[in-house]
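Quick one:
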Amino acid sequence: MNIEEPKNTQITKGFALFALGFRPFFLFAGLSSLLLIMSWLMVLAGGKNITEYYSGNYWHSHEMLFGFVAAVAAGFLLTAVRNWTGIQTLCHTPLALLALLWLLGRLLPLSLWSLPGWLIAIVDISFLPAVALAIAVPLRAKSQFSNYIFPVLLLMMTLANLLTHLQYLNLTENTANIGISLMLYLVVTLIMIMGGRVIPFFSERGVSGLQIQSWPLIEKIAPYSIGAVALVASFIPDSMVLTPVALFAAGVHGVRIYGWYDKKIWSVPMVWILQLGYVWLVVGLLLLALTPLAIGSREFAVHALTAGGIGLITLGMMARVALGHSGREIAASRPVFWAFVLISLAPVFRVILPLLMPDWYLPSLMLSGGLWAAAFLLFSLVYLPILIRPRIDGRPG
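Output:
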């Protein structure tokens, strides 16, 4: 994605929330992440479940992946595809309708209404294929075959969502766990594919004198290694096959991040947040490899991937892309810097501390959730005016 420096600093008045995909979906992602975690912490503290449609832990897992993460992916891809193709993706009324579809998917399952389950399912399942169609049209128009992987991943995520809803509707048994697991590893696959493109670019551009190292063989096998993990971990998670597959993927992506790293990144928050998030993805793969050996718990591997990798990278990407595509200087303000610090601590308390001190499990979980919520509160407060106002350089988007 091309992130250009602003050409002037004249603030333009007006309302631009639906001028480009990143605007509504980054705003909704930030707010939903905050509200979802706060609601989940209240449930853990003994509060009433938010919805009767999703039972037990499914609401938390489903909404974080198919709600929060799906919004980030939609905002990023709609914006990136416009850059790649030069064709305007959804904006104004069509973009507002797509955002409304996402919002209805979050609101309809709430216990405030007694709606038929099939209606809730149809609305929620419809969002990801709608995004896939919205990006596939310009990609096809420009014959960008190398980028077809992104609508394909979105359609696979749709299948994962369908598997969850089939169980919620009592049409199948034990498919929700498969769907949620498949969605998680598809998201990790998406991040690692996209991360391989933009994190080195952002690092070199953000850190003066930094020279990225890459190896053609590593870059070639990186997406396939994580794709293999997605298949094994989703469909045969208890198989011993998972150990070598996850270890191999961790090694491949560990070498990848090693080539990107330089100690100078620690002076640039917009860069270290992305690279640190990628390190957490590698840690998650290592922990996942240990689970068939009865070492540790799958829960810690999952939260290294989610609270660590996905959390840090989504926040860092939203913060950077929103600045670049609103014509602003790409630099972390003090509140954003502290948001990065807070979300970087969240996986430490969610994964590392419970592993070392199991008796502190619930307090550390609550603290981790509080840190996550505080980080996204800061993001939402800082970026609300940026996302709803036009670019400061007067350009479209």
